[in-house]
Amino acid sequence: xxxxxxxxxxxxxxxxTTDLVQILGGSGLExxxxxxxxxxxxxxxxxxxxxxxxxxxxxxxxxxxxAKEDSFRRSESFCQDILRILPNAPNYxxxxxxxxxxxxxxxxxxxxxxxxxxxxxxxxxxxxxxxxKRRILINWALAEEKKNPYKAKELAKEVMSLGxxxxxxxxxxxxxxxxxxxxxxIIDKLKALESRALKKKQNSLLNN
Length: 208
Hints:
This protein is mainly alpha-helical. 69% of the residues lie in helices and 2% in strands. It is built from 11 helices and 2 strands; from the N terminus they run E-E-H-H-H-H-H-H-H-H-H-H-H. It has helices spanning 17-24, 32-45, 49-68, 72-85, 93-109, 113-122, 130-144, 149-161, 167-178, 186-200, 203-207, and strands at 2-3, 6-7. Strands 1-2 form a two-stranded antiparallel sheet. A hairpin with a 2-residue loop joins strand 1 (2-3) and strand 2 (6-7). The longest helix has 20 residues, at 49-68. The protein is elongated.
C-alpha cells in the first residue's frame, strides 16, 4: 500500500491498523477508518477481485481491532460506512452479512438493543461458519434478554447445540440458568458456572 513518500508491503492478514497510522506519521491522514473506506471506494470504482479481497480483509481487521479496543461507537460508524459503500449485489452478500453482524454487536454494546436485534434477525445464518454463527446467536441472545427472555433462552439453546465446550456456550448456559424460574438449585449452578468462567478467564460472563 503506497501513501505518498512511504509504503507498507505485506498481505492484509499481517497488517494491523496501527501499522497504517505509523506509516502515515504526521501527514494528517492518521485515521485508518477514512483510509480503509477510501481504499474500498477506489477498488469498487474499477473492480478487481484480487484487490477487492485484500481491501475487504483489511476492513475486517480494522472492525475486529475496534471491538478489541471496546471502541463500539467507532465500530458502529465504521460498519455503517462500509455497508453504505458495498453494492447490494449477490457477490457482496457474504461481506455485507459479516459487517451487519459487527454493526449489530456494536449497537448492542452501546445500548441500542432494539436496533441490534432487528439486524440479527435479518442476517442470513446459512452463509456463516459454525463459530461465527455462535457469536451472532450469543450477541442476539444477550440483546434480547431483558425485553424477551424466552427468545434469549431459545437462542442460547441454539448456541449450546453448536458446541457445548465453546466460550459462547458457557455464556449461553448462564443465560439459560438466569431465565429458568423453576430451578431450585440455580444458586449452586450459577456458582459452579462462575468457577468454570474463572478458569477460562471469560470476563464478559463474570461481569454479568
